[in-house]
Fold this protein.
Amino acid sequence: MIQRIQSIYLFLVFAFSVVMLFTPLVTFLAVSQPDGIVLKAFHYTTLTNEVFPESSILFSLGGVISLVAILSLVAIFLFKNRALQIRLSIYIMIFLVAIMGLIYFYSYKIVADNEVDYKVHVFALFPIISIILAFLAFNAIRKDEALIKSINRIR
């Protein structure tokens, strides 16, 4: 059923992913320059929203975040196929770990190349919260599947 608790968990994962797509994740403030660098899902920008031309490689981060959003939305509507829902929630958790790794990688790349201080926004912590929610959804789906199997055994 669509009103189960795992649907709420998966919807929250979807909502956090959409928020991560449109908000800054990390801000880097250069010590020697007045302008800073902002890491967003699809590109680097300055604090005045000028896009860096070499930031086209960030489509991997935005693509994985978009993939998590799509998979979580698809998993909500696959409530009749719990085995596939379980698999999708595992894939979602794997992709969320990849998002955390990509955020760290792109942040480290800026810090290593420049002398900057960084400020991690709360939106960069959304993958951690989403992993917890995806795990809770995984457990709820697994419990539903076990309940259905036990009911079928009684018949």
